[in-house]
DUF2269 family protein (Planococcus massiliensis), 191 residues
Amino acid sequence: MLYNVVLFLHILGAVIMFMAIAILALSMLSMLQSKDTENVKRWSGLAVKTDGLFPMSTVLILLPALYLVFSAWGWGTAWINVSLAALLGTSILGPVINLRRLKGILAAAEAETDAVPSPALMNKVRDRVLWNSVSIMSMLVLGILFLMAVKLALLGSLITMVLAVAFGFGIAQVILSKTRPETSTDTVSFR
């Protein structure tokens, strides 16, 4: 009975983390597409608030996971060790990299006086480090869930995490390249 309750809390933590990542990704995509400063302010505010869910979800994942490892699974299982390392990495580096940049976007949007976002504000929104971090974090969490379901050996677990990082980096590059800032809005081409 206790095992099932602890497993439920562990899964609940993973669901909360996925929801937080989904809201963060939606907020960032919405900021990137925003044509007015008020929307950038609104979406960046939501992103900053959402970042507060990550520590809670990490605790909900880690504490039950430790119980499950000690009581049933053991430390000799490769997918557990690789997943734990990836989770700890994202839990520490994510907020360190993301929160400061998201707060910077919010502060810049609140200081903006024009209704249309300035190029400086949109450059903050298009921050490559932020986009790479969030995208890689998202793919690592997906990789962790994959390992929880498939339970691969060490080589498979490591390959899964390397692929997650590569896909995350690639997704960020595609998103940023598809949403290049407009160079001129006055030029119309007729053929």
Summary: Residues 1-178 form one domain. The two ends are 71 Å apart (CA to CA). The helical segments are 2-33, 37-50, 53-73, 78-111, 119-125, 128-150, 154-178. The chain has one domain: 1-178.
